[in-house]
Amino acid sequence: MANEPEFRETTYVKAPKNQPAGINMKDFVMTDTGAHEEKKTGVKRDLEIINEVMEQHSVMVSVMQRRLDQVKVIMNWWQKGNITSAINALSMQNDLSVAMDVLNSTFAKN
Fold it and tell me: Tens digit of pLDDT for each residue in 61-90?
């Protein structure tokens, strides 16, 4: 019986429901000074995030413009009734985000 698979017994450890398992809840409670410092660093962090997003805005605009141009080409073929050319253009794009945009705009209409 050397070819039989080994079965391991699974054991579970019950944790008490009314107490956290090994967590000191005082570590999560903010004092008044801690809350004040958090507000200061939170505002600073928010400004850092906004600045980072604004730096990347031009890149995002160019990516979205490229996607829009690609979708327009495919939708032009689709609306003219030339489905074969639309599918060929879609397969040549090799971009799944453009494919999803086309599928959403063609099949989601009621």
Answer: 898 999 999 999 999 998 999 999 999 998
Write the DSSP string, the chain: -TTSPP-------PPPTTS-SS--GGGGPPPHHHHHHHHHHHHHHHHHHHHHHHHHHHHHHHHHHHHHHHHHHHHHHHHTT-HHHHHHHHHHH--HHHHHHHHHHHHS--
The angle formed by the CA atoms of residues 18, 23 and 27, to the nearest 5 degrees, is 120
**Burial class, 1, CB count within 10 angstroms (exposed 0-12 / middle 13-18 / buried 19+):** exposed
